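Quick one:
INPUT:
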Protein backbone atom coordinates (compact mmCIF):
# COMPACT_ATOMS: atom_id res chain seq x y z
CA UNK A 1 0.00 0.00 0.00
CA UNK A 2 3.03 2.25 -0.12
CA UNK A 3 2.77 4.76 -2.87
CA UNK A 4 3.04 8.47 -3.24
CA UNK A 5 -0.32 9.05 -4.87
CA UNK A 6 -2.90 10.23 -2.30
CA UNK A 7 -5.78 9.65 -4.75
CA UNK A 8 -4.91 5.97 -5.13
CA UNK A 9 -4.67 5.71 -1.35
CA UNK A 10 -8.09 7.28 -0.94
CA UNK A 11 -9.65 5.01 -3.57
CA UNK A 12 -8.05 1.92 -2.00
CA UNK A 13 -9.42 2.90 1.41
CA UNK A 14 -12.86 3.57 -0.04
CA UNK A 15 -12.89 0.14 -1.70
CA UNK A 16 -11.82 -1.62 1.49
CA UNK A 17 -14.33 0.37 3.56
CA UNK A 18 -17.20 -0.62 1.26
CA UNK A 19 -16.03 -4.23 1.21
CA UNK A 20 -15.57 -4.72 4.98
CA UNK A 21 -17.68 -2.15 6.85
CA UNK A 22 -20.71 -4.39 7.47
CA UNK A 23 -18.52 -7.40 8.15
CA UNK A 24 -16.76 -5.44 10.91
CA UNK A 25 -20.15 -4.37 12.33
CA UNK A 26 -21.35 -8.02 12.35
CA UNK A 27 -18.04 -9.04 13.95
CA UNK A 28 -18.70 -6.65 16.86
CA UNK A 29 -22.29 -7.81 17.27
CA UNK A 30 -21.45 -11.51 17.16
CA UNK A 31 -18.05 -11.69 18.86
CA UNK A 32 -18.48 -9.02 21.52
CA UNK A 33 -22.28 -8.82 21.80
CA UNK A 34 -22.33 -5.07 21.17
CA UNK A 35 -25.63 -3.48 20.18
CA UNK A 36 -25.74 -2.70 16.46
CA UNK A 37 -25.57 1.06 17.09
CA UNK A 38 -22.43 0.62 19.22
CA UNK A 39 -21.01 -1.81 16.67
CA UNK A 40 -21.43 0.77 13.90
CA UNK A 41 -19.69 3.42 16.01
CA UNK A 42 -16.84 1.00 16.75
CA UNK A 43 -16.57 0.10 13.07
CA UNK A 44 -16.11 3.80 12.27
CA UNK A 45 -13.36 3.99 14.88
CA UNK A 46 -11.71 0.83 13.55
CA UNK A 47 -11.67 2.20 10.00
CA UNK A 48 -10.24 5.48 11.25
CA UNK A 49 -7.44 3.51 12.92
CA UNK A 50 -6.93 1.54 9.73
CA UNK A 51 -6.80 4.74 7.65
CA UNK A 52 -4.19 6.23 9.99
CA UNK A 53 -2.04 3.09 9.76
CA UNK A 54 -2.76 2.40 6.11
CA UNK A 55 0.80 3.11 4.99
CA UNK A 56 2.03 0.18 7.12
CA UNK A 57 -0.58 -2.18 5.63
CA UNK A 58 1.12 -4.43 3.06
CA UNK A 59 -2.09 -5.42 1.28
CA UNK A 60 -2.22 -9.10 2.23
CA UNK A 61 -4.63 -10.95 4.55
CA UNK A 62 -7.19 -8.15 4.35
CA UNK A 63 -9.82 -9.59 6.69
CA UNK A 64 -7.20 -10.78 9.17
CA UNK A 65 -5.79 -7.28 9.33
CA UNK A 66 -9.22 -5.67 9.77
CA UNK A 67 -10.21 -8.23 12.39
CA UNK A 68 -7.04 -7.48 14.36
CA UNK A 69 -7.69 -3.72 14.25
CA UNK A 70 -11.36 -4.27 15.13
CA UNK A 71 -10.52 -6.57 18.05
CA UNK A 72 -8.10 -4.00 19.51
CA UNK A 73 -10.72 -1.25 19.22
CA UNK A 74 -13.23 -3.51 21.02
CA UNK A 75 -10.75 -4.30 23.81
CA UNK A 76 -10.11 -0.60 24.27
CA UNK A 77 -13.86 0.10 24.51
CA UNK A 78 -14.34 -2.70 27.05
CA UNK A 79 -11.42 -1.46 29.13
CA UNK A 80 -12.78 2.08 28.95
CA UNK A 81 -16.18 0.94 30.20
CA UNK A 82 -14.58 -0.94 33.08
CA UNK A 83 -12.62 2.17 34.01
CA UNK A 84 -15.78 4.29 33.85
CA UNK A 85 -17.56 1.86 36.16
CA UNK A 86 -14.71 2.00 38.67
CA UNK A 87 -14.65 5.79 38.57
CA UNK A 88 -18.37 6.44 38.20
CA UNK A 89 -19.17 8.40 41.38
CA UNK A 90 -17.95 11.97 41.39
CA UNK A 91 -18.38 14.50 44.15
CA UNK A 92 -17.40 18.09 44.68
CA UNK A 93 -14.13 18.10 46.60
CA UNK A 94 -15.12 21.30 48.38
CA UNK A 95 -18.33 19.79 49.81
CA UNK A 96 -18.07 20.54 53.58
CA UNK A 97 -20.05 17.42 54.50
CA UNK A 98 -17.49 15.22 52.82
CA UNK A 99 -14.31 16.88 54.05
CA UNK A 100 -15.31 17.07 57.75
CA UNK A 101 -15.11 13.32 58.38
CA UNK A 102 -12.46 12.51 55.82
CA UNK A 103 -9.46 10.53 57.09
CA UNK A 104 -6.04 11.73 55.97
CA UNK A 105 -4.82 10.46 52.61
CA UNK A 106 -2.64 7.35 52.80
CA UNK A 107 1.06 7.88 52.37
CA UNK A 108 2.27 7.47 48.83
CA UNK A 109 5.09 5.02 48.14
CA UNK A 110 8.48 6.69 47.96
CA UNK A 111 10.51 6.93 44.78
CA UNK A 112 12.46 3.71 45.38
CA UNK A 113 9.26 1.73 45.97
CA UNK A 114 7.69 3.16 42.80
CA UNK A 115 10.81 2.32 40.80
CA UNK A 116 10.86 -1.21 42.19
CA UNK A 117 7.17 -1.67 41.34
CA UNK A 118 7.78 -0.34 37.81
CA UNK A 119 10.70 -2.75 37.36
CA UNK A 120 8.56 -5.70 38.56
CA UNK A 121 5.79 -4.63 36.16
CA UNK A 122 8.27 -4.40 33.24
CA UNK A 123 9.69 -7.85 34.02
CA UNK A 124 6.15 -9.25 34.19
CA UNK A 125 5.08 -7.75 30.84
CA UNK A 126 8.36 -8.79 29.20
CA UNK A 127 7.68 -12.35 30.39
CA UNK A 128 4.06 -12.14 29.20
CA UNK A 129 5.21 -11.09 25.72
CA UNK A 130 7.07 -14.41 25.38
CA UNK A 131 3.95 -16.51 26.05
CA UNK A 132 2.06 -18.23 23.23
CA UNK A 133 -0.61 -15.98 21.70
CA UNK A 134 -3.66 -17.59 23.35
CA UNK A 135 -2.08 -17.55 26.80
CA UNK A 136 -0.84 -13.98 26.33
CA UNK A 137 -4.31 -12.71 25.34
CA UNK A 138 -5.91 -14.44 28.33
CA UNK A 139 -3.36 -13.10 30.81
CA UNK A 140 -3.57 -9.53 29.51
CA UNK A 141 -7.35 -9.51 29.77
CA UNK A 142 -7.19 -11.15 33.21
CA UNK A 143 -4.75 -8.46 34.37
CA UNK A 144 -7.25 -5.87 33.12
CA UNK A 145 -9.75 -7.34 35.65
CA UNK A 146 -11.78 -9.33 33.14
CA UNK A 147 -13.58 -12.31 34.67
CA UNK A 148 -13.12 -15.76 33.12
CA UNK A 149 -16.51 -15.66 31.37
CA UNK A 150 -15.75 -12.18 29.94
CA UNK A 151 -12.39 -13.43 28.63
CA UNK A 152 -14.08 -16.45 27.04
CA UNK A 153 -16.61 -14.18 25.29
CA UNK A 154 -13.99 -11.68 24.14
CA UNK A 155 -11.73 -14.38 22.74
CA UNK A 156 -14.61 -16.51 21.42
CA UNK A 157 -13.47 -19.59 23.29
CA UNK A 158 -14.69 -21.76 26.16
CA UNK A 159 -14.33 -21.16 29.88
CA UNK A 160 -12.31 -24.38 30.14
CA UNK A 161 -9.88 -23.11 27.50
CA UNK A 162 -9.51 -19.81 29.37
CA UNK A 163 -8.88 -21.60 32.68
CA UNK A 164 -6.37 -23.94 31.06
CA UNK A 165 -4.52 -21.14 29.26
CA UNK A 166 -4.37 -19.01 32.39
CA UNK A 167 -3.19 -21.92 34.54
CA UNK A 168 -0.41 -22.76 32.07
CA UNK A 169 0.54 -19.10 31.58
CA UNK A 170 0.73 -18.45 35.33
CA UNK A 171 2.88 -21.53 35.83
CA UNK A 172 5.27 -20.37 33.09
CA UNK A 173 5.37 -16.80 34.38
CA UNK A 174 6.07 -17.85 37.96
CA UNK A 175 8.84 -20.17 36.79
CA UNK A 176 10.33 -17.50 34.54
CA UNK A 177 10.11 -14.72 37.14
CA UNK A 178 10.95 -16.93 40.12
CA UNK A 179 8.42 -15.05 42.21
CA UNK A 180 5.13 -16.41 43.57
CA UNK A 181 3.95 -12.83 44.20
CA UNK A 182 4.65 -11.73 40.60
CA UNK A 183 0.98 -12.12 39.69
CA UNK A 184 -2.06 -10.73 41.53
CA UNK A 185 -4.36 -13.06 43.40
CA UNK A 186 -6.88 -14.91 41.28
CA UNK A 187 -10.54 -14.18 41.92
CA UNK A 188 -11.78 -16.20 38.88
Amino acid sequence: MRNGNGGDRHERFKTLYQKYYWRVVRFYVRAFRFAEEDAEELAQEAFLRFYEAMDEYRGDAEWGFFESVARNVAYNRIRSRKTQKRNAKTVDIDDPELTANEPPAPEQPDYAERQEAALRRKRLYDAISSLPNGQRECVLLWLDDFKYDEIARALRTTMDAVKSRLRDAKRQLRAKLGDEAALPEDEG
